[in-house]
Amino acid sequence: MPRLRPWIPVVVWAAVIFFFSTDVFSSEHTQGIVVGVLRVLLPSARNETLLILHDFLRKCGHFANYFIFGLLLFRAIRASARGWQFRWAWIAILIAALYAASDEFHQSFVPSRGPSPWDVLLDTVGAAAAQLALWWIIRRGNSGPSDAAQPHIS
């Protein structure tokens, strides 16, 4: 069971992504809510602008969902090890890309949705960006000055 524990958040987040791929979160259903909020925030914006912003926010959602998915995948693949390894990141990106492709395939069966290879690419970029962020954060954490070089404050 301890080996499976890091995969629980991955499975939960995959289910969240799957739910976001249903009819409930189709563009037709989110447009009224998102454009309504945007209309309050940007009262002088033209309707075409609000629709473009709606589409942009939906694409940001793709990126963000798979960024989080990429973080969770890396954590699960790394398990109890420390640091950052290219192979862990590569496996996380590969799994995220395969899941993104399967998610778009799922959307081909949802009447109000449709598959898009561009969304798979965007999702994969989100997961890859997560790996780059982890690399940078872990590298920075490991390359700081040693405790001996720090001034002593009493």
Structure description:
By secondary structure, this protein is mostly helical. The chain has one domain. The protein contains five helices and no strands. The protein is globular, with a radius of gyration of 20 Å.
How many domain units?
Answer: 1
Secondary structure: helix percent:
over 70%
- Indicate the low-confidence ranges by residue numbers: 146-154
Mean pLDDT: 88
Distance between the termini: 45 Å
Largest sheet: none
User: What does the oligomeric state look like here?
Assistant: single chain
Report the portion of residues in β strands: under 5%
Question: H/E series, N to C?
Answer: HHHHH
Instruction: Quickly give the structural class.
Output: mainly alpha
Rg computed from alpha carbons, rounded to a whole number of angstroms: 20 Å
Q: What sort of overall outline do the alpha carbons produce when their principal axes are compared?
A: globular
Summarize the structure.
The chain has one domain (5-142). Helix content is 70%, strand content 0%. The chain is built from five helices and no strands.
Spell out the blueprint of helices and strands.
Layout: H1 8-20, H2 27-41, H3 47-78, H4 86-107, H5 117-142
Helix pairs in contact: 1-3, 2-3, 3-4, 3-5, 4-5
